[in-house]
Amino acid sequence: MALTRREFISGTAAGAAGLVVGGVVGNIIGGGGDGETVGGGAVTGVSSDITAIAEARGLEPGDIAKAVKTFVPGGRPELDEFYVFSSGGHSGQLMVMGVPSMRILKIIGVFTPESWQGWGYGSESDAVIKAGTTSEGGPVSPSRPTLTWADTHHPALSETDGEYDGRWVYIQDRANGRIAMIDLRDFKTKQIYDVPNLVSSHGGCFVTPNSEYVHISTKTPTLRDGVDPASALENFADSFRGYSTFLAINPQTGRFDIERSFQVELPPYTQDLADAGKLLSFGWVFIGSYNTEMAYGGNLEGNPPIEVGASKADFDYLHMVNWKKAEQVVGTRSVMLNGMRVIPLDVAIEEGILYLAPEPRSPHGADVSPNGRYIVVGGKLDPHVTIYDIEMIEKAIAAQDFEAHDQYGIPILRFDSVVSGRVEVGAGPLHTQFDDKGYGYTSLFLESAVAKYSLGAPDFTAEESYKLVDKVPVHYNIGHLVAMEGDTVKPAGKYVIALNKWSIDRYAGIGTLNPQNFQLVDLTGEKMEVLSDTPIGMAEPHYVQAIRADRIKSWDVYPPGTDQLTMQPSPHAIADGGERIEQNGTTTEVYMSVKRSNFKPDIIRVKKGDRLVLHLTNVEVTPDATHGFAVPRYNISMSIDPGEYARIEFVADVEGAFAMYCTEFCSALHLEMQGWIIVSA
Amino acid sequence: MALTRREFISGTAAGAAGLVVGGVVGNIIGGGGDGETVGGGAVTGVSSDITAIAEARGLEPGDIAKAVKTFVPGGRPELDEFYVFSSGGHSGQLMVMGVPSMRILKIIGVFTPESWQGWGYGSESDAVIKAGTTSEGGPVSPSRPTLTWADTHHPALSETDGEYDGRWVYIQDRANGRIAMIDLRDFKTKQIYDVPNLVSSHGGCFVTPNSEYVHISTKTPTLRDGVDPASALENFADSFRGYSTFLAINPQTGRFDIERSFQVELPPYTQDLADAGKLLSFGWVFIGSYNTEMAYGGNLEGNPPIEVGASKADFDYLHMVNWKKAEQVVGTRSVMLNGMRVIPLDVAIEEGILYLAPEPRSPHGADVSPNGRYIVVGGKLDPHVTIYDIEMIEKAIAAQDFEAHDQYGIPILRFDSVVSGRVEVGAGPLHTQFDDKGYGYTSLFLESAVAKYSLGAPDFTAEESYKLVDKVPVHYNIGHLVAMEGDTVKPAGKYVIALNKWSIDRYAGIGTLNPQNFQLVDLTGEKMEVLSDTPIGMAEPHYVQAIRADRIKSWDVYPPGTDQLTMQPSPHAIADGGERIEQNGTTTEVYMSVKRSNFKPDIIRVKKGDRLVLHLTNVEVTPDATHGFAVPRYNISMSIDPGEYARIEFVADVEGAFAMYCTEFCSALHLEMQGWIIVSA
Lengths: 681, 681
What we know:
seven-stranded mixed beta sheet, Immunoglobulin-like, mainly beta, about 675 residues, 3 domains, Methylamine Dehydrogenase, Chain H, homodimer, about 10% helix
């Protein structure tokens, strides 16, 4: 199946290249249409009762089976067999959904303040968001305001032995080169880290198979320190660099251990999606790239726009980074750059840490198969997926079988020496996931479809390898897709979710901004079948991961007095009866209990200008007995779960009588769960 | 059916009063259990194919009909017959959901910045949020920061002749006494108004039957100007006042017309939920209240908590405000208070604008029946709903049939003269909605159930009036409920949605903060039947309204160059070819076109410290061709829909090369839709 590089360029790529008309590829919307594949044969002989209900509602016969395949009745949470952790795109948050119901179980506040959860509205969580701009201490100057949103692209669940372990999840900020860590004991964000030397990010995040590291690399490359921005674009190759970042994970807490972390300097191509090697490829990460032309636009001055300049070359470069080797040399051969150990590009080359391999036209996804042998690349202007083989890669490296070096001296492996096969899947292949039977599933953006094909041995042994076996239209313009546990060493199969970017006619009458469209695809039948559409009208999800729900062992009640930031009991937490007010000069410290249906104390008196520190302990032990806390006019909103301790500090600088109250409808006398903050002259 | 006041106190109320044990009513969680009513008889004789699918998934036989009753297949948006506009509670937003699928179609950014929609992240929308703190110009002092969240409780769709007209929706901020207006042409917020004299709000918002006014009244009363906060609580009756606010609506734009607006001063009870009279009661509004005891707590000093102090009296007061009369006198008999015309309390009494009527123990909801005749009040510590009759009320007022006057001189109508019936519905009745067959539906918080009962004539004529006919358990602790168009003059019946506050065991393993639980209830069978559970894990909805989807005629593309704030073409919008950069001193103005797949110009060069004004026009005409716009490190996120003009202004105060990019995956070359902002010394 392997094509020579020459065959590829002259032959099959022509069709894809033909899609570029005057540089306006993007105007094509996949014409998936409505011709869904109906499978399973479950549409005949339905009882007249059920048929009558369906007919009265205007359903088609085939809809009954789809309904029954996706419905999760109330009170049966276990029937949502999988949970999806979905990036929120430029909402900055992380969504959790159940599969197959596709119900949104929670949206976790991460980079963007979220007042329902009291995230960033006066509580200690503010410090997490503040520290997330420049790491640790928060903004270093007024010209670097605290960043209060992100473009979250790729969530990464923690892994043990290459399987999700349900402990933590990470998510990166494409806009600003940051990363956040969420603890799945309470489903709350614990840390936001502004990664040095990354102005923006894309490649990652993902974790290595035992959560040794979480990886995040540059998107658009970073201006090097000391370079004059005024002439930077014209001297692009010298002015910018990329960075592949390995953030070490503390194995107890899941937080970033910066001292053990490091970066590998990369050329200033636009590094794109990435994945961690596993099993056969353990120790490697693979990063796609585009714009190795280093085009920078200038369309108002008559230069071609970036979309054209960046699409000139037939090949960009798959980056291969050997982090096990990097670990060995980082102690001795790195330099410190803005607080991060960096292995310079020349050292990375010399030590055999970094290699390139050609990847066809405008590559996007780079996904590693379950056993780690294959790396599947979708080139979005090429109708094939290109499948690299780690055994061929390692053999080629050992043999120094290079076709050239790039202008930075990085060895480029020969295409034919590392590619074990190519499958013609259709127009605009982007991302690939895997099932438990040796098949790969690739999203086709331009064609608005999901393609299914066989992998090579040992993933797939039953029939012919590298054979397209099925395709299903989706609606419309699919970006990522996810199969259940489909990027682990043990995929679960069953479903694929198509993350469609356009919905156009799938939802009606809700204004000028359309939702995204998630489609649940059944993999259990002979043919793939779209079961349901789910609008995503609050986010622009990119990658998602789907984990077996029973892997998550979250808390439903905090151990008494737990501070959500430290996940330890707070020394300032109280039990029932420990309520008090302490006056220290112009600071009033209030130790308050919170329970149905009162705050105690319920009257707080301070002088205007005094500092007020509230230590709130929710002394309840009943699951779901969450209370809110708001102070009118002070922009304070907190959510305090059962057992939780929370702290709030503010200057009482507005005179008046302010009725603090519980914002969470907690009991029949919830409305009476109120008190007064009296600020007098 | 009418009880005397004496009978009420001595008899049936005892059971409810018994629920108060040591002041800890709230610890009771309704024991609804899982014993759902199964109706419709649609569980037998299902085809073996479908049954096999159901059995394989572990579904019960009755689940098949529920699945078929709620499933909305992809590409059939019209099968979501109704749209629900749901408050977001302390998320500060407004949610739109489809019925019966219960899919969340959109979350509209209102009071809280929302970066997916670019709401409050650098665009002109910032001005809407800023102006929403003190009306018009934004914060007047550093001690009044811009409020960046709200506790949204009650959405109010605009009406014509008492029916929803699908033009606008309003929603109020319980925390801060504010109100927002959303245009349903583009589903975006146009105005946030900080209502004078309201520190917080609850009663409302709702619109009068021809959208003459939108009403919003105080929750906890407002400290009067000039009163010393230090002694305010001890002199509660003199220190505080409530305000019933009638914001006039501009009939063309839907925006608030402050000059034609007014308030009616109210006593400092805690005014609660409210509703507008219609048809027979047109011209009135009705506001429930509690804490007419004016308890203010002090539990750390040994006083009873507010929950006890506010629950002492057997009756609080239903407020009746005659806004048609108020309109007649506001021109001559109002005073100007903080920019709002206010009819003082004594004038309101003298002019017959304000009356009270006793309402039993801890009243909450006050809901007007479709023909306007009945006002149904739920007293949450009384197992009955109490039904007032506007004909009796008007007769009693004409006869001056008062039992007393309150301490402010407001006439109190005799309970027996205005109450036409009471129905024993169960423990903890809160809110009531109506169907098209003359039934009322009341939520029972303590019992975790929905009660159905017949109303009096002319709403209901078929059988016995005021008779409980059905009850269905819900899960758990229902607050509001909504029937389809169930607060209009022409309810649509079909479904009720139970908005349950607790979910406890309905969802598993998603951390310490539980979602709320919406349950869709089928009204078409002999018995009510719960069809589905939907988690709400991003908001705490209070009231919602449900409108027939076909009443909404929204835009899918803006007229070219529309400014979303004015809904008019912007003079700064451009067409393709109009791109340019203008330098005016230290201000750089960029007129940029935005389309698949480039920004033009794609390079912007400014000096550090210069002001950059970007005029972005999305020149696309294809529905769903939305583009995003982000600038790394500058905390800027915008969403620009097809046809939309957007403006952004900032000081380029950080030196560097910043890759502005499109955040909305718009085309196969979306990743190349990028450009450079070069900020040099």
